[in-house]
Amino acid sequence: MEYVVKGKITLEDYKAFNYAALIHKKSYFIILLILLFMVFSSAISGIIENPSIGTVIAQFLPIIIIFSIYLLVFKFFRNYQFKSDRTLNDDITLTLSENGINYASHRGSFNYTVEDFRKVIITNKLIAIYVSYRKAILIPKHFFTSKEEEHEIENFIKEKYSKKL
Asked: What are the angstrom distances between the C-alpha of 29 and each of 22, 70, 71, 144?
């Protein structure tokens, strides 16, 4: 069985991929939970010692400012990374077969075998097939011509490309 999908990855697709990548990393959640516990336990203990509106503002304002700066920097670098990578801005053709995926654009093509796939993430906006720790083949849902094709290809990917650990 072989499927061919064509399209162009948009900035919105890239944003959805980055969001999905963050959510599906276990180490990220563990580190985030530890950091949140440290930050909020310090802020809450300060509020318990002196329960006033000034203390609440003094404890949480730096957290809000740092978090806002982090989000702005993250957004800036994500947009810059997408715009600077010209291969992401090309029209691509993906041929999915039982042996792997052929990724083709006007710059060239590359064959990925099933052995190259490390992890598969399926969200409501895209499918990401990781070929290394930081690199993935993105298949946005708008590449599909119908819902039936989308479900058929999702099932194919789950069956053929997902590693069973």
From this structure: 8, 17, 17, 32
3-state secondary structure of 132: coil
Residues 6+ apart with CB under 8 A from 111: 100, 101, 102, 103
The answer to whether the beta carbons of residues 22 and 28 sit under 8 Å apart is: yes
Instruction: Give 26-78 pLDDT, tens digit per residue.
Output: 777 787 788 778 777 777 777 777 777 777 777 778 888 888 898 888 888 88
pTM metric for this prediction = 0.74
Alpha-carbon 155 to chain mean position: 20
Closest to 12 in 3D by CA, of 155, 115, 92, 126: 126
CA distances from 24 to 86, 139, 147, 158 (A): 26, 17, 25, 16
Rg (CA), the chain: 21
The secondary structure of residue 80, as a DSSP letter, is: H
Please name every residue paired with 138 in a beta bridge, in sequence order, or none if there are none.
128
The residues with which 139 forms a beta bridge, in sequence order, are 127
What is the C-alpha to C-alpha distance for residues 13 and 139, in angstroms, rounded to an integer?
9
- Backbone φ and ψ of 7, nearest 5°: 165, -170
Cα–Cα distance between 117 and 129 in angstroms, integer?
A: 7
Residue 159 token pair: 């069956």
